[in-house]
Amino acid sequence: MIAEPGSPLASLREEVLGCTKCDLCKSRRHAIFGEGNPAARIMIIGEAPGYDEDVQGRPFVGKSGQLLDKILAACGFTRTQHVFISNIVKCRPPGNRTPSLKEAEVCMPYLKRQIEIINPEFLVLLGATALRYMVGEKYKITAMRGTWIDIEGRKAMPVYHPAALLRNPALKRPTWEDFKALVWKYREIVNPQHHSEHV
Ligand code: SF4
Asked: What does the alpha-carbon distance between residue 122 and residue 150 come to, in Å, rounded to a whole number?
């Protein structure tokens, strides 16, 4: 779903698509703004686009994205209705390396503006890099996953990145527990009638 033409989110998208503020613009095919419902109550924040995302110009479309879609479906969430998905940096770091602190610092004002405009109740931080750059260097995903953190009045939950689940299937069970906690909180705060066949 694309933001309405002329809306603050659409203007921000145009800005991001043409951005050359860091060197990642030199090797990217597409800057990936993010997608989902501009009025979503849940925002999902990953690390950076990978190869498939860079080619297709959409977030989370590779194997990790397919797994994320399955998890969301099990929660009764869809990309178009319940969530907005974006990343810490909007352009693919060469070789899928972790974005540097400098790159994150330059790009994250876009993410902060996305959060302000969309104004979600929940932030789901996918993986160690999203946790580190959103919350702080000293926080570790193994210790923090599944816990609720207050980020400027929003409820944020770090969870393992789907790519980590693909590498280590043992992480799937704790991750499912974390997403179940998200569904319960969503029912408590947003929609008591929210339906999921599995939660
Ligand atoms: S990563 Fe962010 S700051 Fe760097 S060029 Fe892309 S959109 Fe701009």
From this structure: 10
